[in-house]
User: Fold this.
Amino acid sequence: MHVEYHVGKEVPLEDDAAVNKVEAVCMGESMAAFVPEGNVGTREASGFRIYAAGAESNVAIWLAQLGRNAAWASRVGDDALGDRVVAELASYGVDTSLVDHVKRGRTGVMVKDPAPSGSRVVYYRSGSAATTLDRAFTRRIRAASPKVVHISGVTAAISQSALAAIEALLDWASTSPTRVSFDVNYRPALWPDEGEARETIRELGRRADLVLVGLDEAQALWGSASVGEIRDLLDGARSIVVKNGGIDATLLTGSSAWTVPALPVDVVEPVGAGDAFAAGFLHGWLDDADPSVCLRLGHLVAGFALRSTNDHAALPTPPTRLLEEATSGRPWAVDRLKSAMVTR
Assistant:
């Protein structure tokens, strides 16, 4: 039997079928993002575009477009914004049956303020429905028995109960076939205590099957300046992917390492590219694909995000076309890549 979790109680649901088929569950907060229409800042804007924004939900959206049965698990308010966020994810093919609408809760909001010197983002997420994620909530994820659960350091930062939810999933996964993917996603503004962030994120990473971390994040958090230092720091993780911006990405598994250069792309907006990379990599990882293929898939999907102003976007290329390019083993070629990234 499904159970719909509200804060402090459990409500039975009727249908188990959708949950049992899920390959990947991405747990974390997604907010309603307000972005000014036109090339103006928030102060001058007369209208706003609203879309769903969240690291884990971004990953779920890309995975669904790659043909995976991906679910997003979270809590939203029983408000119009929560309905809108859930509807947007569902429109991309994401399974939203693991989302809980919290009675009298509210959905988090973020406002993006574009400026020539760089966009500024203001968050209104304190006390949001997602901050009530807790150990009890994870029961429905465990009941789904997905192949992989994807979580991030953002969820660990939004509340102590959300951190406890991550720890509960790690406890459960350690004795189950489900693997855990953990994206560091270090956001300094969410961690008042840098020392706490340093220790908490490290301990979570050491318990995961897969860790994704940017070299810049590792430097900011732990002062780690090399792939080798990161391997030593996260010594409990089975596999670690270190992303070095537009240069390359390296996968570390045991004593082995694979490095694939980033593909050439004209960057429009870097926000969301890390989530897209994670989804591409997981797409291959779910099938135990060759390490280099997983990395190439990560770069290819990230390429679409880099060319968009949104945190996520519609995948314009059939997944089979991307897989062909990823498995070819050929060096990146700009002309060929442009051909591979055609609109359907």
Remarks:
- The radius of gyration is 19 Å.
- The domain at 3-340 is CATH 3.40.1190.20 (UDP-N-acetylmuramoyl-L-alanine:D-glutamate ligase).
- Residues 11 and 133 are 16 Å apart (CA to CA).
